[in-house]
O-acetylhomoserine/O-acetylserine sulfhydrylase
Amino acid sequence: MPFALRIKWEMLRNMSACHNALGVFLTLQGLDRTLGLRADNALALARYLENHPKVTCVLYPGLKSHPEHLRAIKPLREDCFGGIVCFGISGHPRDIVDALKLASNLSHMGDAKTVILIIHPGSTTNQVSNEEVNASGVRRDLIWIAVGIDRMTDSIAEFRQALEHVGSAAWSWGNLKYCRG
């Protein structure tokens, strides 16, 4: 493979897609006007998920239960921890994604509506060994949500009905086995 193509391939693979200047400008304009609402919605959704019995962990620094909450307050406003919520469930992540009707399962996070992403190390890349995945500490049941500007009562109702479809049986995805913890 020619050197230039190899460099381009490695950059795109390792650092995601390259954005053009206009795309970046428009994204920043939209986030500037909606970040506060997204942060409020993310905190409300994180609080709901934290108390759900089928949710094994919630990673959102706005929650007082998050181990880095006090550290996150210093660089961030106390009421603005961003619009990304990560959580793990006691079943297959595909169960919740298949049951969602309002949230979209997309590969980008810049939408006005709530977007759910399954981040599963074994299925998102074939260039990381099982040992590297385990050493990274990334949970195999992790789901990322880029919270949008939707009405939060609708989003919480959406996740409530989707979590009812989550099974608790062990599952395998590719060559990785699900394990809690």
Remarks:
- DSSP finds seven helices and seven strands in the chain.
- The helical segments are 3-15, 21-50, 69-73, 93-99, 121-124, 130-136, 152-164.
- The beta strands are 55-59, 84-89, 104-105, 115-118, 142-146, 172-173, 176-177.
